[in-house]
Write a structure and sequence with these properties.
Length: 898
């Protein structure tokens, strides 16, 4: 019935009220919504689904604002829709308020009374309104379309400024209030605005006497999507239960109270063809018009979905074009329950129809899930095999592995295409033996692959073998598989266009990575650069990330600054795509950056990057990266003087290193670092034996000569230490200076100082500081501390007083300046020549003087400086130095260390 009441308190709740609870302490204040109502325009439209709390909101706010005697409330009931009776009810409600009692004429129903006349009389009487008056039209969606809505729109447009009109409706009415919207006189509140926040939900449960733990509350809030009726029904259902966590986990649209409410208030009000569309499309996580037509066997599905969304019937639009939709979680669960109850035999067929359409239209993940739900394992397997590489290159590795996990073990063991994917999955999990077994199985059963799929299968199998060989650092196998794959990357009848580009870029990346780990630097740089260009050309950032991360590690041999720069670029790329916590490529970049910052003496920052790598590699195993991670951590512990922990870290690395077919590029360096740790632990006899058993070629490397010098100094034999270093210090200007050359010079200085040769000692130390300053490499001075020698040298007119001060700070326990972890990376890396020039910018040397130092032409140096400024995004020398220090390309300033 259409009825009128004076003030909200005189009115009984309607179906739109979220279920009334016996709450303690009043109402849940909706602060933000209350503020919007207080500052509302002349007309307020509250349009939201059943149970969203439209009525409750207005009643609560009117009561809290003290407006009960200035509010008239009219409900348009579903059982009576006579326009004349409606407007008479409006007139009576307004007349019953103190402001309208002597102002609004009394009208009684009479034959022939036109609704338009009642509206005109009402507008005429309200023209003399002096006090502010509120009129609330509840359940406005029950008004007949056409004349009744048109009259309401007319009334809204012509109503006097002292009248506030609030229209509460479950669906949008065509009121034509655009002018009011443009004039700022229209306030609109929708379903998303009415959703309870977690804090409001917490208050609701507390007032209902059923407080919830935070974890259960968060889950329940997610399940209900903040729907007021859902939360209140949950609070009612929870009364008397003693396990809120379990209740929250199990609460769904099939809950009796929720299901009854949704059936009565939503489902039963819909036409039969709409109900059938909703039921049959409930198998989908999202739906569009064509899919709805296909599953329901009808037409016009898109229009139906749009109308349902406009009517706030628990249908949510997912895009701006309103072409894709989803159902409210609880409503979707109710629909699924109803479908299982009424037509369970239709479920497999509906899932397969959905799978075929989704696969055909480029939605492989959803297609695979539907095929698996229908238990059509063969189709699901083909779809996953066809899309595995694409999912990996899109960074959806976890999704691909989850889809694979839904196949039974016996299916994996009998389907060669799935066996290749299982090998990839096991490799990523670090189970290389299992991966090898699956590859062998796929090879044995390859004859089962249909003829039309064999070309793709062979590419997939070869890619799997290559990735496996790369994980084991088996360079020979990688090269063999790479050559085979690169020969097949042109589009043919067996490999479609587009797949060839992906395979080629992936092969180049794997080839460059294994060459980098194998120490074939020139080949690795060439292939990684090609992979990087190819990845960018075809728009594959995952391959770009892999190439950049591995290149960062490789760059550490040439330049720690370059390594750090490329690692930061890789990390930024991973962060931009959300891969910074999930991919082994990101972990490789973290390891590279951890190593670079470690050599710079930024121990705390280095530990942070290594910790991040450790977290990632728990889920995405990469043996070579894991090996370097653990050895770098051992190096970090050694630098802190915690040599027992360093030795434990070396032991942790040994089982992983045992998985590799051949030693990686850091093997000699790591062996040297391990031997240095043993020297510090006093286990010098083990070091002597290790050096004696070593191949002569390895024993004569700079790293092992440095180990031998440290051993001799530990035996208090500085002369033997100097002799050990002599072969590698004959040429004092090597083509590429490394940290090991700095360590050699430092140990030479220590040995010459012990031999009472201050001149030779000072020259060696100054040379070590020269090269340490250019790259900010402080760590050698922490590994072989000589504070007294450094302090004496600082009083001898050295050009590196600031650097010595920083080293002494570190040795005394002061942390260095904050690292540049938040500095935005460069879009284009500095070249080696530009980095050489950059290292002179903090000095007072002019361009001609820098040119003289570097044996370059003045114009060449000026060109390099111009390029440096452009790449750093600066215009002056001081700005360039500051930016380079923020990026870690130069050592921190002495003025910012404390």
């Amino acid at each position: 019935m259409i009825g009128a009441a004076v003030g909200p308190s005189a009115r009984s709740p309607t179906a739109d009220d979220p279920v009334v609870l016996p709450v303690k302490g009043g109402i849940v204040s909706r602060g933000e919504l209350f503020e919007r109502l207080a500052g509302a325009g002349r007309v307020i439209v509250v349009s939201a689904p059943a149970g969203s709390g439209k009525t409750f909101l207005l009643r609560s706010w009117i009561g809290e604002a003290g407006l009960s005697d200035r509010a008239a409330w009219v409900s348009a009931g579903r059982d009576e829709r006579d326009r004349g009776r409606f407007w008479i009810s409006v007139q009576a409600a307004l007349r019953s308020t103190p402001a309208g009692v002597g102002l609004i004429r009394e009208v009684t129903p009479a034959p022939g009374l036109e609704p338009e006349a009642v509206v005109e009389w009402l507008l005429e009487d309200l023209g003399a309104l002096e006090d502010l008056l509120w009129l609330v039209i509840d359940d406005a969606h029950e008004l007949e379309a056409g004349d009744a809505v048109r009259e309401l729109a007319l009334f809204a447009m012509r109503a006097p400024a002292r009248l506030r009109l609030a229209v509460l409706t479950r669906r949008d009415l065509l009121l034509g209030l655009h002018r009011l919207r443009l004039e700022g006189e229209l306030t609109e509140i929708r379903g998303e605005d009415l959703r309870f926040s977690v804090d409001e939900a917490r208050a609701l449960f507390a007032m209902a006497g059923t407080p919830m733990p935070d974890s259960a509350l968060a889950l329940l809030h997610e399940r209900t999507e903040g729907w007021a009726a859902g939360l209140r029904l949950a609070a009612l259902t929870l009364m008397g239960r003693d396990d809120p966590e379990r209740f929250a986990a199990q609460f769904s649209g099939s809950e009796r109270a929720v299901a009854d409410y949704l059936v009565d208030e939503v489902l039963e009000r819909l036409p039969e063809h709409v109900r059938q569309l909703l039921l049959r499309t409930s198998v989908l996580e999202r739906v569009n018009g064509p899919l709805a037509d296909l599953l329901s066997g009808g037409r016009g599905g898109e229009r139906v979905l749009q109308d349902l969304e406009r009517a706030n019937a628990f249908v949510v639009s997912l895009d701006s074009r309103r072409s894709w939709f989803r159902y409210h979680h609880l409503f979707a669960e109710l629909l699924a329950l109803e479908l299982r109850r009424t037509a369970p035999q239709e479920l497999p067929g509906l899932h397969m129809i959905a799978a075929e359409w989704l696969a055909e239209h480029g939605y492989p993940i959803e297609a695979i899930r539907h095929a698996q739900t229908a238990e059509s394992w063969g189709i699901a397997a083909r779809l996953l095999a066809d899309n595995w590489l694409g999912l990996f290159l899109d960074g959806r590795i976890a999704t691909a592995r989850e889809l694979l996990s839904r196949f039974r073990a016996e299916t994996l063991a009998t389907d060669p295409e799935l066996a290749v994917l299982a090998a990839s999955d096991r490799r990523m999990a670090g189970s290389l033996n299992e991966a090898e077994s699956y590859l062998a199985l796929a090879e044995r059963e390859s004859g089962l692959v249909p003829a039309e799929r064999r070309g793709r299968f062979q590419v997939s199998l070869a890619s799997g073998r290559l990735a496996f060989a790369q994980a084991r650092n088996d360079a020979q196998a990688v090269v063999s598989e790479a050559e085979r794959l690169l020969a097949t990357t042109q589009p043919t009848e067996t490999i479609e266009s587009g797949l060839g580009d992906d395979v080629r870029a992936s092969v180049l990346t794997d080839l460059g990575i294994v060459e980098a780990w194998a120490g074939r630097r020139e080949d690795a740089e060439r292939h990684l650069e090609q992979a990087l260009e190819e990845a960018r050309r075809i728009g594959r950032p995952m391959l770009e990330l892999q190439a950049l991360g591995s290149w960062a590690l490789l760059s550490g041999f040439r330049s720690v600054a370059m390594s750090e720069q490329r690692a930061r670029q890789a990390i930024e790329l991973a962060r931009r795509h959300g891969w910074d916590e999930t991919t082994s490529a990101a972990a490789t970049a973290y390891v590279a950056l951890g190593g670079a910052t470690l050599w710079r003496g930024r121990l705390a920052e280095a530990e942070g990057w290594l910790d991040r790598a450790e977290r990632v590699l728990e889920h995405a195993t990469q043996p070579t990266a894991a090996t370097v991670l653990r050895t770098t951590r051992a190096f970090l512990e050694s630098a802190r003087g915690r040599h027992v922990k360093a030795a434990a870290a070396w032991r942790d690395a040994e089982p992983i290193a045992g998985l590799l077919v051949m030693p990686h590029m850091f093997a000699t360096r790591e062996q040297a670092l391990k031997l240095e740790t043993l020297v510090h632990l006093g286990e010098t006899e083990r070091v002597v034996r290790a050096l004696a058993d070593m191949d002569e070629e390895v024993r004569e490397t700079t790293q092992m000569r440095v180990v031998l010098a440290g051993l001799r100094l530990a035996h208090d034999d500085p002369e033997a230490a100097a002799d050990a270093l002599a072969p590698i210090l004959v040429d004092s200007t090597p083509v590429e200076w490394s940290v090991w050359d700095i360590k050699a010079l430092l140990l030479e200085a220590i040995a010459r100082d012990a031999l009472r040769d201050p001149g030779a000692s000072s020259r060696a130390l100054e040379a070590a500081l020269d090269y340490a300053e250019s790259g900010g490499l402080l760590l050698p001075f922490l590994q072989h501390p000589a504070p007294a020698l450094l302090e004496r040298h600082s009083r001898l007119g050295t050009t590196h007083a600031a650097l010595i001060s920083e080293i002494l700070d570190l040795l005394s326990g002061h942390a260095p300046g904050a690292g540049p972890s938040d500095a935005a990376p460069l879009r284009e890396a500095l070249s080696e020549s530009e980095l050489r020039v950059l290292r002179y910018l903090p000095t007072n040397l002019s361009a001609p003087e820098i040119a003289s130092e570097l044996y370059l032409g003045v114009s060449t140096v000026k060109t390099h400086i111009h390029h440096i400024y452009a790449k750093l995004g600066v215009h002056r020398r001081a700005e360039g130095v500051e930016r380079a220090r923020a990026l870690g390309l130069l050592a921190p300033s002495a003025h910012t260390r404390r």
